[in-house]
Automatic annotation (TrEMBL):
Gene that encodes the chain: nanE
E.C. numbers: 5.1.3.9
Catalytic activity, reaction form: an N-acyl-D-glucosamine 6-phosphate = an N-acyl-D-mannosamine 6-phosphate
Pathway it works in: Amino-sugar metabolism; N-acetylneuraminate degradation; D-fructose 6-phosphate from N-acetylneuraminate: step 3/5
Pfam families referenced in this protein's UniProt entry, alphabetically: NanE (PF04131)
Assigned protein family: Belongs to the NanE family.
Reported function: Converts N-acetylmannosamine-6-phosphate (ManNAc-6-P) to N-acetylglucosamine-6-phosphate (GlcNAc-6-P).
Keywords, alphabetical: Carbohydrate metabolism, Isomerase
UniProt cross-references to CDD domains, sorted A to Z: NanE (cd04729)
Record-linked InterPro entries: Aldolase_TIM, NanE, RibuloseP-bd_barrel
Entry protein name: Putative N-acetylmannosamine-6-phosphate 2-epimerase
Lineage of source species: Bacteria, Bacillati, Bacillota, Bacilli, Bacillales
Record carries keyword Lyase: no
């Protein structure tokens, strides 16, 4: 079996991302965040940008799933949208590149299958297709991705809006395909992560619930505000 897939099997992947408008933005900070995740038992790190990828690899020696979030005017797709981001990411030699694998139109009319082909021809990097529903998954596999992740469930206008993770999608995909299915998106408790593995997920990606302190703080402050209002 591929060594990366073996390493993450039934284990935790932590997403360490802080965009420019987030308080913890910066490759040095993300590298330390990833080191903390490693100390806590993470077996791989999902990260954004070439500089964060390089810093995290150096600091942790963990395998990485790299993306570049980039907006384009002519497309809704922002996770590794075009060949430009793919080529940039390959310079960091990530174990995996994740990209939006929905059927939506890519910038400049680029095609998912061409990006997949380019990565497979030029590297041994695996490809994680970020999908939002069952139909996206079928398309991503047709285009040749190696791994599926439920990253985009709730973030396309045709997938369900849920407050928690999309357990149903993980269960459906696990029962339908032999491809490793990664559970990702709004997994905010250890119990939810464990349930994903019980449903057959290959591994679980947790992001904000571990690495976005502003999001964690808000869950506490909101709970206190509600309690205060109930008392008055
Ligand atoms: C939808 C989207 O853009 N997701 C991004 C994908 O890389 C990240 O912002 C998420 O943090 C990551 O998917 C993990 O999810 P959560 O932070 O909910 O555990």
């Amino acid at each position: 079996m591929n060594p990366f897939l073996l390493q993450i099997k039934q284990n935790l992947i932590v997403s360490c991302q802080a965009l420019e408008d987030e308080p913890l933005h910066g490759s040095g900070i993300m590298a330390k965040m990833a080191l903390a995740a490693k100390a806590g038992g993470a077996k791989a790190i999902r990260c954004n940008t070439v500089s964060d990828s390089i810093a995290i690899k150096e600091e942790t020696d963990l395998p990485i799933i790299a993306i570049i979030k980039q907006d384009y005017e002519d497309s809704e797709i922002y996770i590794t949208p075009t060949l430009k981001e793919v080529k940039d990411l390959l310079t960091a030699e990530p174990e995996v590149i994740a990209l939006d694998a929905t059927r939506r139109r890519r910038p400049h009319g680029e095609e998912l299958k061409d990006l997949v082909q380019y990565i497979h021809q030029h590297s041994s990097t695996l490809i994680m297709g970020d999908i939002s529903n069952e139909d996206d998954a079928a398309y991503a596999l047709e285009c040749g991705v190696d791994i599926l992740s439920t990253t985009l469930s709730g973030y396309t206008d045709y997938s369900p809006t849920l407050t928690g993770p999309d357990f149903d999608l993980v269960e459906t995909l696990v029962n339908k395909y032999n491809t490793p299915i990664i559970a990702e998106g709004r997994i905010s408790t250890p119990e939810m992560a464990k349930k994903m593995l019980e449903l057959g997920a290959w591994s679980v990606v947790v992001g904000g619930a571990i690495t976005r302190p502003q999001q964690i703080t808000k869950s506490f402050s909101s709970a206190l505000t509600v309690a205060e209002k109930e008392e008055i």
